Amino acid sequence: MTVPKDIPDKWFPIVLPLQRKKQNQVAGGLKKRKGKEEERKVRANDREYNEKFQYASNCIVTSKYNIVTFLPVNLFEQFQEVANTYFLFLLILQLIPQISSLSWFTTIVPLVLVLSITAVKDATDDYFRHKSDNQVNNRQSQVLINGILQKEKWMNVRVGDIIKLENNQFVAADLLLLSSSEPHSLCYIETAELDGETNMKVRQSLVVTAELGDPSNLARFDGEVVCEPPNNKLDRFCGTLYWKESKYPLSNQNMLLRGCVLRNTEYCYGLVIFAGPDSKLMQNSGRTKFKRTSIDRLMNTLVLWIFGFLVCMGVILAIGNAVWEREVGTLFQSFLPWDPPVNNFMFSAFLSFWSYVIILNTVVPISLYVSVEVIRLGHSYFINWDRRMFCSRSNTPAEARTTTLNEELGQVEYIFSDKTGTLTQNIMTFNKCSINGHAYGDVDPVGPQGKRPQPLDFSVGNPLADGGLCFYDASLLEAVRTGDPAAQEFFRLLSLCHTAMSEEKREGALLYKAQSPDEGALVTAARNFGFVFRSRTPGTITVHELGRPVTYTLLAILDFNNIRKRMSVIVRNPEGRIRLYCKGADTVLFERLHPCNHELMNITSDHLNEYAADGLRTLALAYRDLSEEEWEEWSEHYRGAGKAADCREDRLAATYEEIEQDMMLLGATAIEDKLQEGVPETIAILSLANIKIWVLTGDKQETAVNIGYSCKMLTDDMTEIFIINGHTVQSVREELRRARDRMVAHSGDGGKGDEAQGWARPQTCSPGNGVGEGDPAGWPHPQEKEEKEKEKEKEKEKEKQQQGGPAPSLLETISGEFALVISGHSLAHALEGDMEQEFLETACACRAVICCRVTPLQKAMVVEVIKRHKKAVTLAIGDGANDVSMIKTAHIGVGISGQEGIQAVLSSDYSFSQFRFLQRLLLVHGRWSYLRMCRFLCYFFYKNFAFTMVHFWFGFFCGFSAQTVYDQYFITLYNIVYTSLPVLAMGIFDQDVPEQRSLEYPKLYEPGQLNLLFNKREFFICIAQGIYTSVVLFFVPYGVLAHASQSTGEPLADYQTFAVTTATALVIVVSVQIALDTGYWTAINHFFVWGSLGLYFTILFIMHSSLLFSIFPKQFHFLGSAQNTLEQPVVWLTIALATVICIAPVLAFRFLKLDLKPQLADTVRYTQLVSQKKRKPGGRDGRGMGVSGVGLGVGALGRLGRSGSRRSGYAFAHQEGFGELITSGKNMRLSSLALANFASRHSSSWIDTLRKKKHANSANGAVGANGQTGAPHTPPGPASAPPLSNSSSLSGPQDTPPEEAGLSSFREEGVARDGVQSSGGGAMSHGNRCARATSPDGETGGCSFGAVQEALFGWRGVGARVSGASSPGPPPIMEESSPAE
After folding, report:
1. Which residue positions are annotated as catalytic (predicted)?
2. I want to staple 345 with a disulfide (CB 3.0 to 4.6 A). Which of 326, 615, 1193, 1282 is the partner?
3. What's the predicted TM-score (pTM) here?
4. Which residues does the annotation mark as catalytic?
5. Could you tell me which CATH number the domain at 436-676+1198-1232 has?
């Protein structure tokens, strides 16, 4: 981790919050608190009084060690690993001469190497933690001490201090705002680090403290605050200020929380209430958990099993020793007596047991753990070096911040994503509009000359225009400038009906400060079309209308809130006419229109449907003319409601309701919340990889739903979208159950009545498409049995992992055509103990889940619930401090380095700058890491059992004397030198398919989710192969050499000849085996495999040379035995025979498996090999989707062919507005908007049919392979849209090779044969085009394309439901309401 040296405007936040005990130690000694803190008392400017409560200091400590504690603490942590303790135990045994038959260095050298590597890594990590801590703790604050402002480090700030903050500074602790430089002691803050929202928020001090504006007055301030204890509730604070014999209530509106940034405020003063670990930010950051992969946990289990197996072998051989010593050994006592400590056969057996434990310990060598760490380090560097995950715009590479979780990236089942800044750029732009029944903004993406249209130049005739808006429809600008009254009134409304502020740094350089990005986008749009908002006072608004300054009198602002869902202003123009302008959600506004607007309302409603179909945020605009009498009468009611002592908000709302009636409709706006590049494509690809994506956002429900539509998580083809808004436990329970009942009912309507009654078969189809399971023609499915067995195996694994948890619910068999939207207050009830299962059953049956208005801690709780109940690998991705808890809780945390600081990055395991890089991280790096680690482990256990078990068989022929077959140098070097590098090369570089194929075929990701490549079954297969190899390697040389002789007639049956022959055969066999296991050869692989073999022979001859014998005659006493042995032809024939017997069954099994039961990767490799042979040069240009979804639809310039969409929300991103502050004369200063040019790109349609796992239809493939179909092709509908591909056969260019075009045809034929219509299916029309490219006979090479169809697409006879002309209509949104509420 690299920490920049100087980032003045970024707060380096906390990586690993520790327990308060450690914080107190750093703060100044260990002090015990008496019980739990029930309330907090803080007295200003009185450190002596506050210190007696022993409150935490503002110092943050995330490091684990210091110079003194590093060595003992680190060693203690490392020896908590079972393997390290095991090897330490073996080392102690080897130091006992009576039982050790191996030298101590065979264990101590690898052990010291492992401990040293891990210690260096831990020390490096902790160094960067110290560095990060120092940068946070040493930031400067101005603290009022003895009446003088002094600069103090953050770490020295104490509870009760008064500190001064200046503009753009981070808040150092949780402060009570005392006064500020702004009128009425207002203060403007940005809370992106807390809740992810970048819009401004306003805080205001108490009136009684607002007058304490200078340090001298503040120094005399001795008020006492009594408030709630530290907690994690960001939106609530309850306390009381006692001062001058009076008490004043305090709320969250008076607080500045740590992590906020002071904006547009020159300075302010605050009293420290909570510091350091007590601050609300730290209370929400969660505890750092040590993360282990599922493979790590499995390896720990397997090591224990192997140790048990080792003990069993030791017991067997010890019993053999006892029997042999009693029956045979006693006969040799005269010339081969027992060693002095041994006086009977039982004691001899006891020592023999421990000797064999030492000898056989190589079944789990310590080099395994060294190799695993090296491989993981290599995978991490590949992620860091990946140029396709480098963002040139921000100059940010991807970074693997941990080396322990790489293979877990290949097993992710659930992704939990933040919204703001993660899925979106948080940039809003005016996209389309409807004015008086005319739609503007729909432009043909290809102009009349075949060129893309250019954006309008607004600066012509409008020097105040903003250059950031890209709008292509010139007819709207022409309508405004030619005097169209409706168009001009439309933009006049946008320039007046808002609460934005305008800053003019220099003449004509306007900067709008809006409370929400939406509002800023609308005001900016009006500015570009000639209605420029210039300035405001509490009673006026000045607008330049087509170059002419006009000042309106602001009579009233009818503010926005979540209940009204609209805002209005009442203004008087210079001519004296009074008019009310209103903008809001169309569902609310249409109810308040004059009846004469009916026809216009219908037209505008159609336009709004189209905009919502494109995922745009919509608002309706209306106005009403008021007479002077109406205004006077209403203003009396308005003033009376404003002065009401009780129920003021309700009275104001009723007053607003009176005037907002009989309005005239002007039109509607459509704002685009800019998604990050490639988000829809990434979500589509990840969904095809059977990964479920949940969005957890602090934003409001309508905004989140809009984004859900924009990124295609929510689609019009969904059967139903459920909205859970209950406020009580009972109401939430009823809404969840009602949603489940409707799912079951819909499934029954779709031909799944049996399933609804609990008689579901393992394979089911999507609800509502009218297609049953199996083939209508009744053709057999030979692979069904195999797929069902796999399904059962998966369920069995899940049940084992759940350790007696509840059985899977019926709802898990329901196809994912549903979506769930749940609010934060409902989620709080849903996450209670007895409600968790209810929530999970409903949510996990849905294809998409969106949780709105959730707190940081709730995000973590949702992740924890899935981890605990589903036993699935989870990944959390976010960019703000509000995502830290979620990132730490998930198995894998990914931080996006975006607009909201770097706290998420510092807390993450992986980081990059764009959400779209996630598909490459998972589908390429994650899948490869999992594949490589699994192959590495399988081979490693195989080669070590083959090596070690030879000792076991030899024990039966050496009197169970714990004699080794090989010499001790071979035993030491076998895992360190002879076989380490080839398996490392395979573990680091191996691939089954190239990276572009991993992205084109997302189903390749599924084996990792099902844990198919390395599990207990695969482990036992490897062990069995290793034991078989050891039998061959021992008994073949033993049988041959027992009767063989040299050319001179001397027998070959001596110990050293046997040892050299067996060792040589072993090295050759395992080298050939790894050559077979390696799927991707590089120069490094060749060098390591064949180099290790050559190195073995080199070292073998050196150790038996006369040179070493002359130097160390006692250590190397078998002079020339290697040369003598390997000169004998019979030895080489023996080695060759053993190699063939070991390898031949493996080859036969793999060929049969490849021919009879090919895996998806085998099929993809096969098609690639065939296509490479047939492809012309240059034929791959432009092929495949790649990372950014090349070749998809054009996007925002043209409308997509969609119909019947519901309106998903409205474009307000804030809650309560600031109308009252404006009209009261409090000079508003709001957020700065960064409006940038961004051409949005949408995927044209969602691939709606998620694959039901383990479907098979080999009959379809067989017929398709012969070029026949069971039914004619259904022609595509007229409104077909470009497809979003999950394979090269869907997204390839026109020059797709015939083999792969044939692959696409099999998919199309399987769909067509079932007679399923797919109107408007772009993917299907493309499939038809591919199907016309016939596949030549004989090019398939005998591959079963039934398996190809099933493997590639995971479905059988299910028509793709693609939105188009015959779409069944929009999904109903069920906003559940409960009588309990």
Report:
1. 418 (4-aspartylphosphate intermediate)
2. 326
3. 0.68
4. 418
5. 3.40.1110.10
